[in-house]
Structures are given as structure tokens and as C-alpha cells.
Amino acid sequence: MSRIKTYDRIVEESLKLFNEHGERNITTNHISAHLGISPGNLYYHFRNKEEIVYQIFRQYRGFISARLAVAEGQALSVDDLVNYLDTAFDAMWRFRFMFYDLPGMLARNAQLQQDYHQFVHTELKGILAGHFREFIRMGLLKMDEADIEPVTLNIWLVVKFWFAFEQTAHPGEPITEADSRRGVRQVLSLLKPYVQPDFLPTFTSLSARYVD
């Protein structure tokens, strides 16, 4: 097996184990046993578990950035608003272990902490603000410039902590992709007061996709 293939398998299978059992409950020995490789083979690619977690974070960041990116000269549409929310919750589902104990994980991984904060407070913040300004320009939303940052922050907080909320609201029940749909509906409720009358029927129709 080539080094690159083994490296990718370690990242891929670690993500599955972390999502299923929680990152803190999985050790490098668990990962190597799951993959059927020796611990020494795993350490050839990664010095410790924190390096694996960091590579998974890079996948998460790349997924979000690629899906939210808008090609130069491309105009946004109403559908894009819901598509972006789908992307956010899809990412949260794919990489859900990251948000079960995010503060603890960041505290144990200095590189992850630095890059995570840079991504959230600079890259992601800029992307979302740009999208909102375009939605305002096209007449979908009516919002003052000063409202953009707090509204996008509220959206990010709902997205970031949605699965944790679902866990506490329904103890003992497994988290499923259906929980993501309720999360999207919750975010749409934050946006509804800003939707302009001409777009309200379309917005309502889009919101109906997420009714259980």
C-alpha cells in the first residue's frame, strides 16, 4: 500500500470513528487496529492524534470554502440562500465530532486553534458578509450594514451549536441528518423578518422544504 493511500485512509477512517464514538474516546491504537495496520505504520504518517484531527479540519475548511465560493461575475439567486444553509449543515453533519467538544479540542491543539479562529473570524466572516450584501443589493433582504455582522454571527451560532442543542433536547437519541433540516428551518426563521415582500412567497416555498 502506498504512503499516500495509507495517509488518506487514516484520515478517512479516523473521521468515521470520531463521528461515531467521539474524538476523545478514540486513540491512535483504536485507529490503527480499525485499519489493520501497526501503530508504527500510523506514526510514520502522523506523530499523534492531534495531527489527524488537524488534517480533518483542513478538509472541513476546504469543503466550506469551495461550496460557499461564488465565481467572479456570477450573480446570486434566492435559491443560493438555502443552498448555503444546506452547505453549512451538510458540513456540520460530515464533520460533526468537531463540534461536540470544540473548546476542549482547540485547547489541546495549538495549530488547530490558530487556524480555526483565522478561518471563522476572517475567511468565513468575509464570505458570509459578502453574500449578505449581495442579497441586500438584489432586494431579497432589507438590512442595514450595521446589522450584517450580528445577524451572520447569530446564524453561525445556531449552525455551530445545533447538534449539541439537539443532543440536550433529546437525550439518548442518536443525531441524524434529519436534525440538520430542523437547523436550516431555525436559521430561516432568523432571516424571515428581513425578507422583502416581493420575495416572501418564494422564501416561504423554500422554507417549506424543511418542514418535517
UniProtKB/TrEMBL annotation:
DNA-binding region per UniProt: 27-46
InterPro entries noted in UniProt: Homeodomain-like_sf, HTH-type_Tx_Regulator, HTH_TetR, TetR
SUPFAM superfamilies: Homeodomain-like
Keyword Lipoprotein attached: no
Recorded superkingdom: Bacteria
UniProt keyword list: DNA-binding
Residue stretches making up the HTH tetR-type domain: 4-64
Pfam families (alphabetical): TetR (PF13972), TetR_N (PF00440)
GO molecular function: DNA binding
PROSITE patterns assigned: HTH_TETR_2 (PS50977)
Protein name (record): TetR/AcrR family transcriptional regulator
